[in-house]
Amino acid sequence: MKSTKDTVYEFIRQSVYVNSIYAKGVQTKDIATALGKHRSNISAILNELVSEGKLVKSSTRPVIYTLSEQAEAKTGGTRNGVFVGENGSLRNAVQLVKAAVLYPKNPLSVLFCGKSGCGTTYFAEMMYQYAVEKHVLEKNAPYIYINCRHYSKNVAVLDEELFGSNQAEGNYFERAKGGMMFIDSFDLMDVRQQNRIFSFLDTGYIIGEKGERIDCQDVYLIFSCSVQNKDLLKSKIPLVIELPNLADRPLEERFLLVNRFIEQESQNLRRNIEVSTEAISALLLTEFEHNVRELQSEILTACVNAYVRVANEENKRLSVVLSDFNQKVGRSLLHAKSYSRELQALLGNTDYLLYEQEKGLQAYPVKKNKTVDVSVVFGSEVKEEKVTDEMPVLLYAMHGNGTAYSLCEVTNELSHCNNAYSYDLSLDMDASTAMEELKNLILRIDRGAGVIVIYDMGSIKTMIDIISEEIDIEIRCLNIPITMIGIEAAHKCAMEKDVDSAHHLLCQEMRGFGFEDTRRNSVIITLCHTGEGGAVYLKNYIDQYSNLGIKTIAMEFTDRKALLKEIMSLKKAYNIHAFVGTYNPKLLGIPFLSISTLLEASPENLDRILMFEPLSLPYMNYAKVYDHLAEQFKYASISKIKSVLPQVVDELSVTYSLDSEQTLGLFIHLACAIERILSGKYVEKNSDAKQLVNALDEDYRTIVRVVKQLEKAFKIIIDDNEIGTLIMILKQI
Predict the structure, then answer these.
(1) DSSP letter at 583?
(2) 3-state secondary structure at position 363
(3) Would the pTM of this model clear 0.85, i.e. be above it?
């Protein structure tokens, strides 16, 4: 394990390089706050590092510390071009990069290889910055980025842009003279183009359209490829550097990456951001398929979720918690116990890390109730203060470790009242000891107007009844049987094979717990991948046949982030009962009902379906679907849909192995798409769909061929935006 001195030195080195606010150095208080250490101890360590020649101490006030010139030389001396992990997992890669840039006479071409998202693009950019810093390239030298994935179906276009003579600003090689060109996903480039690149590497010339030789010897080329294709290319490119997956890098490096990405979002949003250490722990332990890129994307999404909550409150700090991330991140905490020592070393005993725009990363302990003597006994923290105002107080009393404490923390943080307290009843504690502790706590927190106790199970209620007889304090109880509900839910899940059956039985049990019907404040959201056609169709169907009195809202589903924002806004006023549609968005744990589940049942059973009551359903009768479509469509001929659409759906269903639910969803989507195109309704372009069209060429050609039948029959054009959406539906992306 690192010594405190090593930890302090590493913090300074990383702060100086990573955070621009610390470019001139770091103060003692910054280090003490971030590491959770006493200033006097940190000050002594800093003086030792100064005497060892590792740090330089300013003569000004306040005193700042920075790396000595000697220390900077050992680390490469590139503040702007720092690599996270340059002295760890990327040490060999960084050394090879520096050697390639500084190679005598001319820099060496480099081939980066690694799995998706491992950081090749970022590495290439840092390599360019290093070359500029070392005066290998001029300060304003060009940097050209080419992603071969974007040209998978446009070989001729790339050929023209790389080697052609008809470009207004010159081809890529001409524009890159005196600078660097990064060819990403080089293994996806056309073989003929690859050979022309290899010829350039040998000669320093490119051959123009008319056979002329164009001197481009001062163009520095770097490449990237997938790991599985590196052997095909390494014989042609002098230096191959393999980058590790994020999961193979140490926790310390992952932590630095997390910090960097959160700091970026803080700058982008112009808001200070606090992130729970629980969430950061989960991020550090998650295995991301797309490595660093996916990590950055997850942090962006979480910050968006946090921003939605305070978007209307100017300058309010964003608070990012575990629930802002997807379930995969949350599940990674199951492994936290195995890494408890490493996480403790990185995160200390704080509950949040605060990322301030002006100050960079700081450890930020949440304002907790100050510990007093009784908390040692209780395992619960109580605010130490002399209270003279006569007001009731709130006490959470729950079974388990930390349950009540967490509820208390959230309540005080969000209410700003600081009148909530907690008692966690350990499952292995005997009743008499627990009751004595609970009584002493109530005596201490009472402000003269009584205590409201929110509890989960009956044993606590029994204790409170006895305590009420022994002390002269008004106590009122409110039973929220979350633990009992959880136990019942676990039992139902163990007994039932079907999730809807288990849910229905649990709902019946909950009525026995005294829960009221919340349908009056509920909404059902109908969804469609693109446009509102399918969503409106479902809304109209529910409105026509449902007697539940639940409001129905139709929404398009082109942008997941925009959808999340709308859902968060709705949740402020409504309980979202369920999503209904062709595709489960998997947001916020909201239940989903597929379109086939609704339409396979008779209209008389619709309400039972919407309340998740299990039914034995017959095979889907498409005649009913045609009847519903006929009622709503104004432009598309139902008879023509009957004669053409089933054949198209069947062919796609067989090709992509769709089940009955997916097949029906595809049918409704295509029918509504035809109606929408004929009506002339504009649909906003889907950027994800465009990317899929470019990336999945075989799927694109297959779908285009099949839907041509619809284009001929209805005299419409199904554009690439629609094709991309179909790819999303068929491949469940």
Answers:
(1) S
(2) strand
(3) no
